[in-house]
Amino acid sequence: GVKRDLSGKHVLITAGPTVEPIDPVRYISNHSSGKTGYAIAKAAALRGAKVTLVSGPVSLPKPEGVDVVRVKTAVQMLEACEAAFETADISLFAAAVADMRPEHVADCKLKKGQADADLGTIKLVENPDILKTLASRKGPHQVVVGFAAETNDVIANAQKKLEKKKADVIVANRVGEGLAFGTDDNTVFFVDHEEVEELPTMSKSRLADVILDRALEYV
Ligand code: PMT
Questions:
Q1: What is the pLDDT of residues 136-159, one digit of tens each?
Q2: Can you give 50-78 as a three-state secondary structure string?
Q3: Where does CTP bind (predicted)?
Q4: How far apart are CA 158 and CA 167, in angstroms?
């Protein structure tokens, strides 16, 4: 049977991509499928947690026993997380949040080479960092698990994110053609202030339980 070791706990999870509109028909986004975050949400619910899953646009069914808050943009994702974070015992930030968004969302479809609405020059501004914003408000009994998606220098970059974003642990994965985004399996490292642990390749559903086990070590 499944151990109910998360009963009485509130778990917050972000999943999927964010989608940042350019004009009524175009957007900036990435290849996150939501599989990782949804697997964690499902596993946490099975282990007895009250689960809030803040999800960008994905095509996955709602996991049973999970409260899903659907959002599109990073700003909306932050707002939805702020409401849940205060009572969350464990928060896991698996979403691939767009770092930048178009400064203005055009009312009409942009055209090539049009003086006032040129598709060739979209000015971007920085999105809020959801993990960093919330981890800075973390109380002593709250656990924060960040992720790091890296094409190169996986460990060193994850260590930088651990410090900068004030997470308890970072789940680091290599990304690129055929890696991590949208796959059913993943190979990750746990990077915390003491050590780096390389995990064997496993399914995202198995990984979900392993990540929750690890998170419980910081409670
Ligand atoms: O959804 P899948 O298809 O299963 O793919 C899984 C995954 C590759 C998306 C997942 O394993 C993963 O790595 N998620 C984090 C992706 C990411 O955006 O990483 P990052 O290195 O850019 O960001 C670092 C951390 O800060 C992440 O926890 C991210 O959620 C968070 N962040 C980043 C930017 C931002 N504006 N706000 C954030 O909260």
A1: 999 999 999 999 999 999 999 999
A2: EEEEEECCCCCCCCCCEEEEECCCHHHHH
A3: 99, 109, 128-131, 147, 161, 165
A4: 11
Residue 1 has pLDDT above 80, yes or no: no
Give the position, in ligand 1's atom list, of the atom nearest the Cα of 204.
4
Strands 169-174 and 143-150: parallel
Is the CB of residue 180 below 6 angstroms from any atom belonging to ligand 1? yes
Mean pLDDT calculated for residue range 30-44 = 98
184 Cβ contact partners less than 8 Å away, ≥ 6 residues apart: 35, 203, 204
Q: Which residue has the tokens 């746990």?
A: 190
147 marked as binding residue: yes
Mean pLDDT of the chain: 96
Give the residue from 187, 188, 186, 194 showing the smallest Cα distance to 217. 194
Identify whether the C-beta of residue 154 lies closer than 8 Å to the C-beta of residue 148: yes
> ipTM of this predicted complex?
0.99
Name the pTM for this structure: 0.98
Mutate to test the pocket of ligand 1, among 19, 82, 97, 203 (most ligand atoms within 8 A of CB): 97
Pick the CATH number of 10-216 from 3.30.565.10, 3.40.50.10300, 3.30.460.40, 3.10.20.310: 3.40.50.10300
